[in-house]
C-alpha cells in the first residue's frame, strides 16, 4: 500500500546519536521485524540485561523511534513498538551537519555498513534454502546524475507501493530486508 508521506531526513544530531548505538539499532530492528516486545523479552533475545534494554528503549522513545503500547502495558511490564511514521527515511548530507552531527552520521553509516555486510554474508545460504524470498540482482549501466536521482526516487516509490507496514500487512506478508546502493564505477 502506498505511503503518501514524503521523505523524512534524520538530520537532528541527537536523533543521529540515538541511532548510532549498536544495541539501540538491534532493538529497533527487532521491534520493526518482529513486532511489540517488553524489555525483558528483548533482553532475552538480544542477550542483554533488562536494565540495559530498558535504558535503551527509553532513549529510542525519547527521540521518537519507538512508543509504549499503553493498552498492553500493566504495572512494571511495558510493551514497546516501533513508530510507524513515514517509510522513506533518509540520512542528511554530511556538509549539512555540525562536527558532532557529522561524527554521529559517520557512526550511523558505519553501523549500517556492518549490518549490510552481515546480511550479504547470509545471501548464499538463504538463496539455496529460501529462494522464494531471497532475490538478487546485480546491475551495471550508465546514468546521468539527474537520471540516477530519478531512478532512486522511482525505486522508493516502488517500495511504498508494494510494501506494507506491520499493521497493514496482509496474511502471508513477511518482513524483508531490501538494500539499494549505487557507486560510481569509473573510480575503481
TrEMBL record:
Keyword DNA repair part of the UniProt annotation: no
Superkingdom classification of source: Bacteria
Species this protein is from: Actinomadura viridis
Residues of the HTH arsR-type domain: 14-110
Gene3D superfamilies named among the record's database cross-references: Winged helix-like DNA-binding domain superfamily/Winged helix DNA-binding domain
Name of the protein in its database record: DNA-binding transcriptional ArsR family regulator
UniProt-listed SUPFAM superfamilies: Winged helix' DNA-binding domain
UniProt GO MF annotations: DNA binding; DNA-binding transcription factor activity
Keywords recorded for this protein, A-Z: DNA-binding, Transcription, Transcription regulation
Signal peptide bounds: none
Amino acid at each position: 500500500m502506498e505511503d503518501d508521506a514524503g521523505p523524512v531526513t534524520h538530520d537532528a544530531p541527537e536523533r543521529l546519536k540515538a541511532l548510532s548505538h549498536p544495541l539501540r539499532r538491534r532493538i529497533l530492528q527487532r521491534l520493526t521485524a518482529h513486532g511489540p516486545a517488553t524489555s525483558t523479552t528483548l533482553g532475552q533475545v538480544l542477550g542483554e540485561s533488562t536494565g540495559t534494554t530498558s535504558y535503551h528503549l527509553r532513549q529510542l522513545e525519547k527521540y521518537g523511534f519507538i512508543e509504549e503500547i499503553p493498552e498492553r502495558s500493566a504495572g512494571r511490564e511495558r510493551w514497546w513498538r516501533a513508530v510507524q511514521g513515514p517509510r522513506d527515511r533518509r540520512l542528511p548530507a554530511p556538509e549539512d551537519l555540525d562536527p558532532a552531527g557529522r561524527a554521529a552520521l559517520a557512526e550511523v553509516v558505519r553501523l549500517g555498513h556492518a549490518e549490510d555486510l552481515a546480511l550479504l554474508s547470509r545471501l548464499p545460504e538463504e538463496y539455496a534454502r529460501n529462494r522464494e524470498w531471497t532475490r538478487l540482482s546485480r546491475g551495471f549501466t550508465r546514468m546521468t546524475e539527474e537520471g540516477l536521482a530519478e531512478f532512486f526516487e522511482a525505486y522508493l516509490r516502488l517500495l511504498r507501493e508494494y510494501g506494507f507496514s506491520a499493521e497493514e500487512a496482509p496474511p502471508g506478508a513477511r518482513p524483508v530486508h531490501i538494500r539499494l546502493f549505487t557507486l560510481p564505477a569509473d573510480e575503481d
